[in-house]
Every structure is written in C-alpha cells, then in structure tokens.
Design brief:
Layout (H helix, E strand, L loop, with lengths): L4 H17 L3 E6 L2 E3 L3 E9 L6 E4 L4 E9 L10 H13 L23 H4 L6 H12 L13 E9 L6 E8 L8 E6 L3 E3 L32 E6 L6 E7 L4 E7 L17 E6 L5 E5 L9 E4 L5 E9 L9 E9 L82
Parallel strand pairs: 2-8, 9-10
Antiparallel strand pairs: 1-3, 3-6, 4-7, 5-6, 7-8, 10-17, 11-16, 12-15, 12-17, 13-14, 13-16
Length: 416
C-alpha cells in the first residue's frame, strides 16, 4: 500500500466511526404509555439525541407536534449565575413570571458565568422544564451513578387521537442523517397517572432549597381502577400510589418493566427487577410480588378484605435505580375470580406474537395436539398411528407462546 494513502484511509475510517457513533440512541422514554384521546409531554433520554429534528410512532393516531431539546447544564456555574437563576425560579413558582435582565456578570469574561439558555430565559420555561432544572440543582453530582448514554434529553409533545388503536407502538427519533432503533411505547384505553418527574423542594423561606426529594408527594390523588400507572425508580426510592379498592372483588396489578428496557449492560442483574407491595388502609402489608413465573415483572392479584384506600408501593428489589428504570402498572378489576394468569395474558400482550412463536397451522403433514398441565405430576398421553416407516418431528410450543411450562417429550414404541 502506498505510504501516502495510509493517513487518508485512517482519517476515512475515523470519519466512518464518528458517523456511526452519531446515530441517535433513545435509552428510555417517560412516561412510556398514554391514554387514547389525550396529550402530554414525554421525556426521551439517551445518547446523541439532543440534535434530533423529528420523531414518530408506528401505527395510527399518535403524533409528535413539537420537539424541545434540553441543553446541557454547566456544573461549573456557582458564585453568580446559579444564585441569580435560583432566585428567579422561586419567584416564578410563587407566581411572578416577569422577565429579568441579566446582571453585569453575564457579560464579564472574568466571572464564572457559563451561559445557559434555559437559565437566562427562565420565564419561558413550563412546569416540566422547571422540574428538569430543579432536579439538576437539587441532586448530588453523582446521583444516580453517572450514565453518559442517558444524559441527553429531549421533550416530545405527543397527541393521541381518540380513535387510536390501543396496543404496543414503536417510537423512533431521527436527525438530518440517521434514524434511531425503535423503542417500545404503549397506548391504552384506561386513564393514566404518572409519577412526577421531580417534586420541587421549597421550604417556608422559599430561597433555601431542601435536600433532593425523589418520592411522590403524599397528596397524589387517589386512583380508582381501571387505571394505568407510569413510574420511574431512582436509587433508594419507593414509589407510592393510593388506590380505592372494594371488598370482595378481585383486583389485579400487572407490571411491565423488562419489556421496556430488556437489558442494561452495567447492571447486576442486567435489568430492572421491580417489586410490588400492597398495604391495607391500616398500613399493614397484605400482598407482595417479586416475579411472575419465569418473568421478572410481577403480577399481583388480590381480593381486598375490606373497602378503603390501599397503598401500592413499588421499588427495585435491591433498591437500585436510575433514569431508565421506567415501568407501567395496569390496575383493573378482574371479573373472573380465581382467574389463572399466564404470561400470555399479561397487560399489553394483546397483539399478534411473532410467527416463529406460534405453531404452524394444521394441514396434511401437520398434526396439532393441545393440552394443559394443570396440577403437579400430571402427564398427558397422545396416541397416533403410523402406517409405514416415516420420519417424524415433534416440537413443543409452550414458553414461546407465553406458558411457564418447562415441558418434556417422551416417545414410546408401538403398543403390543
């Protein structure tokens, strides 16, 4: 190879690698479900997404009307800029949205003023954007553990038509040169409640922030089934939701978490492992679920012993947490008392599974036999007749169809 070509080829390879790394990569979406006929603002966190110019959902009736990129906030700011912006923020929260002129320090290159568009135009920020600013200010620098692949944020204004079809969708974002991989998102018929992105800490003196507060405020409205809950688990956090339940009726809480984030390369285990606990009106724990058969996402089903307001608590089983530990819980009254749940009957598995997960249709060369192992030790026997020597293939479809069965096939010779 000619020596002059080597630097050129290395530079070309570097450019190609840089172009590949620039692909927008959404790491999480919050909230990750919406009710038909509603509109809301959705936070997307990830890598190389600050420059996205568009986003869309698969399927009908879901549109993105606006995209707002969240700028990077300068950690080095302190002596002059943060006190100015913080005082302005608390005045806005108190109802004063008047415009403010920047102090002389903002134009003095000798000061520690790092220009930030959101801080310098605080009066133009809405409630969600103020929450994002507040979270940055009121959480320690390394809380949660730094995750660069989730640091960039954009906000999507999402509108769902009343005629939109409920079920699983895929969200994709794109910039001028590339499009992201799809990210799961759910549309449901039930009303929704979402955990606040951040509870803004204010004390009586207004100017002095309290330590970071990540828990849901105690005055979150009481919910009545059916309802869908969106949440986000942070380190050490226990989310609490108050649910009105009726004595003698069966209620079910179905969790979706791992399907939203199947794998986390730097977590042990490599996925969010949620736990659900239910407390009665007197504060006693009456139900607990960690897993559902072989699935890490729990399903809790209960017949309340009395009428009242029950508390559903959700946390990681090791109290870990970070931005992409998002979840959805569908709470509803189950009219089929004693209903036997299977993974295939889970909250949002209401759309056709992949063809490879389903047995082939019956035909001349395909014989379909069905059965249920409904008590321990049961064995199901299927007899068949073979008229001449032939090669037969036996394939068991269970786990692929959502069943927890770990089945075994045994073949016995001809009957005497």
């Amino acid at each position: 190879m000619h020596k002059r070509l080597v630097p050129f080829l290395l530079a070309a390879a570097a450019l190609c690698a840089g172009a590949a790394l620039a692909l927008p990569v959404p790491g999480y979406v919050y909230p990750c479900s919406l009710q038909v006929g509603t509109s809301t603002r959705v936070i997307v966190g990830g890598d190389h997404i600050r420059g996205v110019t568009g986003a869309f959902f698969t399927g009908d009736g879901v549109k993105v009307s606006r995209i707002v990129a969240v700028p990077g906030f300068p950690r080095a700011s302190g002596k002059t800029e943060v006190p100015f912006a913080r005082e302005w923020l608390y005045d806005i929260l108190a109802g004063d949205r008047s415009k403010r002129e920047l102090p002389p320090e903002a134009t003095d290159p000798q000061t520690d003023w790092y220009h930030c568009s959101w801080w310098e135009h605080m009066d133009e920020r809405d409630d969600l954007e103020l929450q994002i600013i507040c979270r940055f200010w009121h959480t320690p620098e390394n809380y949660p553990q730094p995750t660069p692949a989730l640091d960039q944020l954009v906000i999507l204004d999402v509108d769902v038509d009343a005629s939109a079809t409920p079920g699983l969708r895929q969200l994709m974002v794109y910039d001028d040169s590339s499009i992201s991989a799809p990210h799961p998102f759910f549309i449901t018929k039930e009303p929704h409640v979402a955990e606040p992105s951040f509870v803004i800490p204010m004390d009586e003196q207004k100017k002095l922030p309290r330590p970071h507060i990540l828990h849901i405020p105690p005055n979150l409205p009481v919910q009545k089934p059916p309802v869908v809950i969106d949440g986000q688990a942070w380190p050490g956090e226990v989310d609490e939701f108050r649910i009105q339940l009726t004595k003698g009726k069966r209620f079910t809480f179905e969790m979706i978490a791992r399907e939203l984030m199947p794998y986390q390369g730097d977590a042990v285990p490599g996925f969010f492992n949620p736990v659900m606990r239910l407390y009665d009106p007197d504060g006693r724990e009456i139900a607990y679920e960690d897993d559902f058969y072989y699935l890490p996402d729990p399903i809790l089903s209960i017949i309340p012993p009395k009428d009242g307001i029950y508390t559903l608590k959700i946390h990681d089983n090791l109290y870990r947490g970070r931005q992409d530990n998002v979840y959805v819980v569908r709470c509803y009254e189950d009219s089929l008392a004693g209903h036997s749940f299977t993974p295939q009957n889970r909250a949002f598995v209401c759309f056709p599974p992949p063809a490879a997960h389903m047995p082939p249709p019956p035909g001349k060369d395909v014989d379909i036999r069905k059965g249920t192992i409904d008590f321990p030790g049961r064995t199901i026997r299927h007899d068949f007749t073979v008229a001449e020597p032939i090669t037969l293939n036996f394939e068991l479809f269970a786990r692929r169809m959502g069943s927890p069965l770990d089945g075994v096939i045994r073949l016995y010779g001809p009957l005497a």
